[in-house]
Fold Histone chaperone ASF1A.
Amino acid sequence: MSAVNITNVTVLGNPSSFLTPFQFEISYECVTPLKDDIEWKLIYVGSAEDETYDQLLESVLVGPVNVGNYRFVFQADPPDPSKIREEDIIGVTVLLLTCSYLGQEFVRVGYYVNNDYEDEQLREEPPPKVLIDKVQRNILSDKPRVTKFPINFHQENSESGEQADGNKELPAPLDNPSNEGL
């Protein structure tokens, strides 16, 4: 069982211009107190073929976290278009929202993002060089891909790879493709 459970993620200001900052309202619960901070990251996948084009847009530490329900708005600057190959700016990519504890990622929420020109004429006849200020970003927020990773939230209680509640860590991530029970 996870000590922290995401209960909801709402994408704010969607769709928007490619150059507009990202905003997510994140709700989560903590079921057992944690001594250290949890780390939230937002990563923009710049190319499906080469992860060197991925950009860490923002990383924030929250905590220490006591038992209870929490909600905050996570804001991140848009990706730097100069660090994305020209042919990868227009089209579909991925945005990853991750949460970690003590360097161990325990949940990842992935969203498909469609970048295209808002203007129909530009979509039909794209210019030779991308006009980034005319590109609209649309996060497909109704179908996030949620992956949960089992971690040991209380390492001092474990010496044999078992979690504090007695469950052994699972070798593969658990997937929950629906928005329910994030």
About this structure: The helical segments are 86-89, 120-124.
